[in-house]
TrEMBL record:
<comment type="similarity">
    <text>Belongs to the 3-oxoacid CoA-transferase subunit B family.</text>
</comment>
<keyword id="KW-0808">Transferase</keyword>
<protein>
    <submittedName>
        <fullName>CoA transferase subunit A</fullName>
    </submittedName>
</protein>
<dbReference type="GO" id="GO:0008410">
    <property type="term" value="F:CoA-transferase activity"/>
</dbReference>
<dbReference type="InterPro" id="IPR037171">
    <property type="entry name" value="NagB/RpiA_transferase-like"/>
</dbReference>
<dbReference type="InterPro" id="IPR004165">
    <property type="entry name" value="CoA_trans_fam_I"/>
</dbReference>
<dbReference type="Pfam" id="PF01144">
    <property type="entry name" value="CoA_trans"/>
</dbReference>
């Protein structure tokens, strides 16, 4: 049975220095509050995994939490670059950052392999690109049945998978709906998992197309209303487009970013 924990308790117990962690969510239900709690607790030397790292990963990188990023695209959606990410790559500030770049299809297949207990995934998606020459975890493989040249990528099995969802019940069963990306696969592939939710309810009401994660695949659940902000949570709140625009000048400037860390992230602790 998944345990119901406060967010700070869950991060303290589940996320350790040096861990490989995945905070997944595709436009929708991004676990931003959990990312901020990782910053507050000063975790270091993390391998950050995410198909589409956006501003919460920019913030984690800028706070010095990361040593490596495994990803398939990075940016501030609809706005532009991730400037703390760029500063880490170009200037090693605040610490050097190693990168491992894949395609979206490659990352999704890596999660699926991890969730299935397989050592690797096979796909055609890298042919005609220069990614195999840049990334050691992309290898050619020959189909034993047809002789076709394909590509193999290793399974992703994060130490900790963190997602956000709309609801959980008191036993720790989780329900999410809308765009769900690879959240299910992230939980199933990870050694430990944390799901932050908008609310804990007595009973989950079935919804068409919803994804239900049973309590036995989830390590911990934390009730964090607004925990996906500034991304959106279908049925609860819309995307805060202004926040993404306002992040750009903060992310560009080290002093402004340092002030954001000292004020906004710490203010959230008081608010919660």
């Amino acid at each position: 049975m998944a345990r119901i924990l406060q967010l700070d308790e869950a991060i303290a117990e589940l996320v350790h220095d040096g861990d490989a962690i995945a905070l997944e969510g595709f436009t929708h239900l991004i676990p931003v509050a959990a990312g901020h709690e990782i910053i507050r607790q000063g975790r270091k030397d993390l391998t950050l995994i995410r198909m589409t790292p956006d501003i919460v990963y920019d913030q984690l990188i800028g706070a010095g939490c990361a040593r490596k990023l495994v990803f398939s695209w990075g940016g501030n959606p609809g706005v532009g670059s991730l400037h703390r990410f760029r500063d880490a790559i170009q200037n090693s500030w605040p610490v050097p950052l190693e990168i491992e770049e894949h395609s979206h299809a490659g990352m999704a297949n890596r999660y699926a392999a991890g969730a299935s207990g397989l050592p690797f995934a096979v796909l055609r998606g890298y042919r005609g690109t220069d990614l195999p020459a840049q990334t050691d975890t992309i290898k050619p493989i020959e189909c034993p049945f047809t002789g076709e040249q394909l590509t193999a990528v290793p399974a992703l099995n994060p130490d900790v998978g963190i997602i956000h969802a709309q609801q959980a019940d008191r036993a720790g069963n989780v329900q999410m709906w809308g765009i769900t990306g690879v959240q299910k696969e992230t939980v199933l592939a990870s050694k430990r998992s944390l799901v932050t939710v908008e609310e804990i309810v007595d009973e989950l009401t079935p919804r068409p197309g919803a994804v239900v994660l049973p309590q036995w695949v989830v390590t911990a659940v934390s009730e964090v209303p607004g925990g996906a902000h500034p991304s959106y949570a279908q049925g609860y709140y819309e995307r805060d487009n202004a926040y993404y625009q306002q992040w750009d000048p903060i992310g560009r400037d080290r002093e402004k970013f340092a002030n954001w860390l000292e004020t906004e992230v710490q203010r959230e602790r008081s608010a919660r």
